[in-house]
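Give me the fold.
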Amino acid sequence: MKKPVRIALLGGGQLGRMFIENALRYDAKVDVLDPDADCPCARLANRFMQGRFNDRDTVLRFAADADVVGIEIEHVSVDAMEELERRGKTVIPSSTTLRTIQDKGLQKEFYVRHGLPTAPYALVETAAGIAGHADLMPAFLKTRTGGYDGKGVMAVDLDTVIPDAFTGPYVLEKRMAIAKELAVIAVCSPDGNVVAYDPVEMVFDPVLNLVDVLLAPARCAPEVISGAKDLAARVAKAFGSPGIYAVEMFLTPAGELLVNETAPRAHNSGHYTIEGCLSSQFDQLLRCYMGWPAGDTRMTGKAAMVNLVGEGGTGSPNLEGTDRILAEPGTFIHLYGKQETRTGRKMGHVTVVAPTEGEVDRIAAWVKSHGKVLPAKTIGSTREIKQATE
């Protein structure tokens, strides 16, 4: 009888939670390491260990008996991942891939080295260094490490005052004209086969700088759809490591596709695949860990994802409008199990699957209108006000 595979996952957030939900279909055992004892994975993991996933010794202790080591967040100890590889563990993505991804400057150099189109840029050590790159203005200034969800990025021009807290080194990237922001999930299986999902179109909240609504597939011409899939596959092949790659792209008004950033893990832009595709991004990741063939990326219909983001302050989370959302066919609610809601915090999402784009748009608008994650006290107060005025 074959020995069960032990999967050690670094990070216990919502990505890990959705991965475990899929893995349980196969009775796979997933251990989780996270600094937060109340993280979304804590109650679902086969074994949960509280600790820092960016601490080398903690990671080595946690993964000592694992067969496969994976991530749900990039900010882990690469030194530990390298050592685990030396010890014969299967590490997905590879430590080499992670070291490149963790540094936006190394990412940019990687794209150029492999002939992958990306926006013009310069690497600068200090804020004063941007003065020598007038040709890139206006631009975005990005900290090379530690940024996520729009954090660590600011729009700049030559006369912009950079806050002291916004420390370098930086990537200075020319601000391109953008028609649409797209993302493609590409899967590189252990046998080297690469498959890609259709690109999705990301619509951002202008205040929070987070994805508000995602449309799948992207509302683009067929040649853009195929070009985006091909480009994402090229990125995955260039990294040369099994796993899944969320490749974020810019589509310019001239129809050019430019690679923005890559995440070598499950990604917000792929959540719609749980109900919207024959094999989800989380199923693909498990297949990579287990050495199984890649799954089928075809869609089951048109789809959208609406992010549920906390609003109204801090407190115990409650989703308002559940009954109204579920009254619509083809709606699927995912709550992430976070114990506290905060304004701007991702608390869940709703996937919409329907036969036509028009129906998807109608239901997504309905979800946005009625679905709100609010602190419990806010829910209570709004109900009291409603009752008092009835």
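The chain has three domains: 6-92, 120-174, 180-380.
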